Amino acid sequence: MDELTLSEIKPKRRFNVIAAIALGISVVAVSASIYLFVQNTELSSKTDKLSEQIVSISIKNDELQKTADAQAVINDEQDTYRKLTYLTAMAHDIEDGIVTDDFVVNKVRFSWGDDGNLSDVVIDVENQPSLALSYKSKGAYELSDRELRAKSDAIIKAVSEYYTKSPNAPAWNDSTSVQLTVQNYNIGNSAGGSFKLVGETK
To answer: Per-residue pLDDT tens for 56-66?
Structure first.
């Protein structure tokens, strides 16, 4: 009878141990699941907040970019007005102020290109009394091409030297095209530092 009782009790103990272990594992698993769920919820919440912050920063960046673009437009306009004002003042100084033995600058007009440098210059001159005797009409003189070219180069050089004394002006360089006129009739053009009379091909 005792043996039977012992044999019946032992399986129950094993069952209780296995059940306890299983229960413990279940508790650990449930606890781990709860912990992971809580962590996942917190992570999801942080991710949502981070996403909101990213959206907010993106909106602010867009606003800043719009402001920067608007400021760039304003800066460009200010630069344009500054150049225009400066070149107008420069032209005023040169007109009737730059002379050679042969010419007096009557009018001058400056234009600048997309690169910010001086692109075109138109210099209209009046003849000095000594040269007026050689003037025929409509930009033609009773002078050799060589003489007229030298006189033209001299007045262009005088204007250029005065202009380039200012460090703030758009650059006058070899790519600047210069048209020389007398009483609005074309005498010739200078490009790349080389002056050619009207009609010259070489």
So the answer is: 888 888 888 88
Q: Is residue 137 domain-shared with residue 176, that is, in the same domain?
A: yes
Secondary-structure breakdown of the chain: helix, strand, coil percentages, each rounded to the nearest 5 = 55, 20, 20
- Give the pTM: 0.66
Is 202 inside any structural domain? Answer: no
The C-alpha atoms of residue 20 and residue 175 are separated, in whole angstroms, by 95
Buried b (16+ CB within 10 A) or exposed e, 15-52: eeeeeeeeeeeeeeeeeeeeeeeeeeeeeeeeeeeeee
**What secondary structure, in 3-state letters, does 104-121 show?**
EEEEEEEEECCCCCEEEE
Q: How far apart are CA 155 and CA 22, in angstroms?
A: 108
**Domain end residue (candidates: 62, 93, 124):** 93
pLDDT digits (tens, 9 = 90+) for 110-144: 998 888 899 999 999 999 999 999 999 999 999 99
